[in-house]
């Protein structure tokens, strides 16, 4: 067990996921058939021996609370450590000015009461828009301690082999000793070959984090990136740590589509599922493949009934696909029903949607159609 | 006593049987722990029935090969049986005072755990077996037991006359009060067969258990001893007719058949009832991946499977790999089995962790008559490995490894 408190920010202020995050926070967005983004984050912590975890939420967190519950399914219902979900608006001693956080430093400040109470020596923070599928936090912590850095910032320089910097992500500038000397948000979608960008993971001593956050608020700051990292880069030793394995990034709908489709590649799957990924158990029955169905190159969760055709798809739990329906390059979320003779291509079907007989929806690879939760098409 | 809670009804689940007729499938596990229906074990059906019927206190009596069963049940959390008071308790045979003994029979197993039962001061006790496939609301049966003011109620199934001689058969009066009980009669007088589900008024049962224990000639068995002596004693023993799907999966053929029944829409057992869920311990596995070359029809496939072959009318358990060009027909492929490239498996049960080598043929025949083929199921034992090109004949049982066949070598 590591002497670490894991903190996850369940939201991302920069995301543009249209209808997908209208009713849920980013961390509870379904992914890869049977998971939510938070499952990869929590499992990553648990697999590295971090059993003391706080999730900081901002809005729409009911779906996350419902999914995580007491943390049983991640083995996080513990007497020592365990999981806690920190909600906004009602922090002790903050009777005035209650409202949503303006930035991550403010979010940390408002939850200092909880952070101070935990006994861990170090804190590892993660966001929810970038998920590093096989990060070893133990090695990260050892590197941080050995380097003598005050803060270690994890960065990537490619998106599973593609030299792409996701829009809106902070880009880091390091000197030759990998010390942070500058940072800038990628506002214009520039794709620079050598760009090193933040995956949102930081290691820091808990006592230092507490001091930095209090100081930041006292100065009137609220952003962890700009009011702490950028402001103090001359005084603090902030070092980079290169993560170069599989990851997925979700800040817009196309990114969400790509993140899901990654799981159809066997090398990506092998890395992402090398260690167990835990999720809420639903006790679904096995999936039944009916006579005349055709499923190719797809991920299918349990509890589905498939009578039609599915190609290059991500099919979540309890989905029904009717006779004669053709579903290509689609993400179909939990308990959706695609009735017979429906044709879907590049469509993201949210939970509990019903697509009625014979309907046809065609999106584009770069701009998939999103069908909102519980709607009937 | 402070804070004392009483349980009106508790269940005792007999799970110690070896299930020797299942052959290699129960070499290292007790019958209730044999995988069933894609992601379940046989015992899940009885445990889920209890929980869905509102029974939250269950003693599971184990004896034969208990390790895997004990691990599987664990804290009982998957069935919601991790309770503050009650829940599931594993009851192995144990030493009492200066001596200890194995469970001599079903009744003796309950007798040896009287102290467990008395902890909860129950009015009624439900005695169940962990080796039947059925969905039943014991609450309804208990209501019936109370309504009849019975001392014992036995759940019965109306079976076809030809099959009646395989079961314990009840003779009843017009009010369904049992007047006769015959174990496997040659000329059955009725077609009401015992399902091995009993409800007893606990006070009465305790009396008969103690009496039976003192009888040295007794086999200490419910069917053979307790029920007949209750009938002789003039106790109120009633039959409760169960209408629904029920199957004893005691043999390879019946295990195969019960699995295949799940795929048949005409057989009245549905597992996806949201208000009567079948619970099971979950494997932490990714969703199934269906490759470009796969064709799957009329089959159950579950988590962790990786399919690139052709699957027809089969049940695949968690973590099964089927490589390109392999074909599986009318078969049951248990957890983590691997079927390599080009191999063909027909009318077979592959036990957990078995490996079928490239181009091997298991249970393959030209005969397509389902009625004949289902009587001759091929079985590959746990962890067995069938080498490349090896042919395993119809109806054979393989346990251990069969090395790859060299060119020109005679078939085995």
What would you note in describing this structure?
The complex is a heterodimer of chains A (377) and B (412). Chain A has nine helices and 28 strands. Chain B is globular, with a radius of gyration of 23 Å. Chain B starts with 8 loop residues before the first strand and ends in a 14-residue tail after the last strand. The C terminus of chain B is likely disordered. Classes of the chains: A alpha/beta (377), B alpha/beta (412). Strand 14 of chain A pairs antiparallel with strand 18 of chain B.
Can you give me a brief rundown of this structure?
The complex is a heterodimer of chains A (377) and B (412). By secondary structure, chain A is α/β, with parallel strands linked by helices. Chain A has nine helices and 28 strands.
Total count of strands of chain A:
28
Assembly type: heterodimer
Q: Low-confidence runs of chain B (pLDDT<50, min 5 residues)?
A: 408-412
Structural class of chain A: alpha/beta
Give me the number of helical elements of chain A. Answer: 9
Distance between the termini of chain B: 69 Å
The largest β sheet of chain B comes out as:
9 strands, mixed
Radius of gyration of chain A: 21 Å
Work out the helicity level of chain B: 10-25%
């Amino acid at each position: 067990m590591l002497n670490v408190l894991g903190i996850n920010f369940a939201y991302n202020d920069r995301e543009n996921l249209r209808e997908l995050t209208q009713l849920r926070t980013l961390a509870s967005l379904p992914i890869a058939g049977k998971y939510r983004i938070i499952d990869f984050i929590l499992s990553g912590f648990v697999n590295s021996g971090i059993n003391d975890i706080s999730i900081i939420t901002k809005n729409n967190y009911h779906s996350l609370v419902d999914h995580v519950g007491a943390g049983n399914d991640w083995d996080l219902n513990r007497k020592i450590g365990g999981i806690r979900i920190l909600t906004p608006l009602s922090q002790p001693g903050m009777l005035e000015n209650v409202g949503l956080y303006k930035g991550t430093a403010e979010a940390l400040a408002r939850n200092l009461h909880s952070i101070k109470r935990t006994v861990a020596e170090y804190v590892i923070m993660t966001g929810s828009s970038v998920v590093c599928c096989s990060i070893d936090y133990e090695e990260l912590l050892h590197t941080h301690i050995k380097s003598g850095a005050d803060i270690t910032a994890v960065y990537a320089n490619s998106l599973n082999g593609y030299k792409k910097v996701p829009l809106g992500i902070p880009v880091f500038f390091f000197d030759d000793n990998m010390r942070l000397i500058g940072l800038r948000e990628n506002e214009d979608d520039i794709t620079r070959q050598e760009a090193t960008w933040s995956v949102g993971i930081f290691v820091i001593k808990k006592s230092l984090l507490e001091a930095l956050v209090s100081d930041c608020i006292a100065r009137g700051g609220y952003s962890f990136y700009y009011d702490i990292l950028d402001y103090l880069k001359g005084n603090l030793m902030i070092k980079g740590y290169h993560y170069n394995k599989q990851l997925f990034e979700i800040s817009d709908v196309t990114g969400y589509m790509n993140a899901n489709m990654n799981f159809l590649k066997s090398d990506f799957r092998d890395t992402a599922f090398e260690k167990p990924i835990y999720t809420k158990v639903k006790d679904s029955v096995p999936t039944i493949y009916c006579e005349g169905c055709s499923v190719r190159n797809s991920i299918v969760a349990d509890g589905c009934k498939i009578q039609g055709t599915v190609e290059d798809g991500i099919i979540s739990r309890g989905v029904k696909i009717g006779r004669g329906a053709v579903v290509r390059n689609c993400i179909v979320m939990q308990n959706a029903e695609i009735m017979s003779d429906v044709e879907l291509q590049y469509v993201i079907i949210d939970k509990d949607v019903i697509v009625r007989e014979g309907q046809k929806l065609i999106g584009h690879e770069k701009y998939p159609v999103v069908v909102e939760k519980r709607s009937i098409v | 006593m402070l804070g004392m809670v009483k349980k009106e009804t508790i269940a005792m689940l007999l799970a110690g049987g070896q299930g020797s007729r299942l052959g290699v499938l129960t070499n290292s596990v007790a019958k209730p722990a044999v995988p069933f229906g894609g992601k379940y074990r046989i015992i899940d059906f009885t445990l889920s029935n209890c929980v869905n019927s509102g029974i939250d206190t269950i003693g599971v009596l184990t004896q034969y090969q208990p390790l895997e069963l004990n691990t599987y049940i664990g804290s009982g959390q998957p069935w919601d049986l991790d309770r503050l008071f009650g829940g599931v308790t594993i009851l192995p045979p144990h030493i009492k005072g200066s001596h200890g003994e194995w469970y001599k029979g079903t009744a003796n197993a309950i007798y040896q755990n009287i102290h467990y039962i008395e902890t909860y001061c129950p009015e009624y006790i439900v005695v169940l077996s962990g080796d039947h496939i059925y969905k039943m609301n014991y609450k309804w049966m208990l209501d019936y037991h109370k309504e009849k003011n019975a001392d014992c109620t036995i759940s019965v199934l109306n079976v076809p006359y030809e099959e009646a001689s395989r079961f314990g058969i009840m003779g009843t009066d017009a009010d369904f009060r049992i007047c006769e009980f015959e174990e496997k009669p040659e000329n059955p007088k009725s077609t009401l067969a015992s399902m091995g589900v009993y409800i007893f008024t606990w006070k009465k049962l305790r009396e008969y258990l103690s009496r039976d224990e003192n009888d040295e000639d007794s086999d200490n068995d419910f069917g053979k001893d307790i029920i007949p002596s209750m009938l002789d004693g003039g106790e109120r023993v009633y039959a409760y007719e169960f209408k629904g799907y029920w199957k004893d999966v005691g043999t390879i053929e019946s295990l195969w058949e019960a699995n295949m029944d799940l795929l048949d829409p005409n057989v009245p057992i549905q597992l996806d009832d949201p208000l009567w869920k079948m619970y099971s311990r979950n494997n932490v596995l990714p969703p199934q991946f269906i490759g470009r070359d796969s064709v799957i029809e009329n089959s159950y496939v579950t988590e962790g499977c990786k399919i690139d072959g052709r699957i027809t009318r089969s049940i695949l358990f968690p973590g099964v790999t089927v490589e390109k060009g392999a074909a599986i027909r009318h078969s049951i492929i248990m957890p983590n089995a691997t079927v390599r490239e080009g191999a063909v498996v027909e009318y077979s049960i592959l036990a957990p962790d078995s490996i079928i080598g490239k181009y091997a043929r298991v249970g393959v025949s030209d005969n397509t008559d389902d009625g004949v083929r289902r009587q001759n199921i091929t079985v590959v034992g746990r962890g067995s490995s069938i080498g490349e090109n090896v042919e395993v004949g119809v109806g054979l049982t393989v346990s251990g490894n069969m090395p790859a066949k060299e060119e020109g070598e005679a078939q085995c």
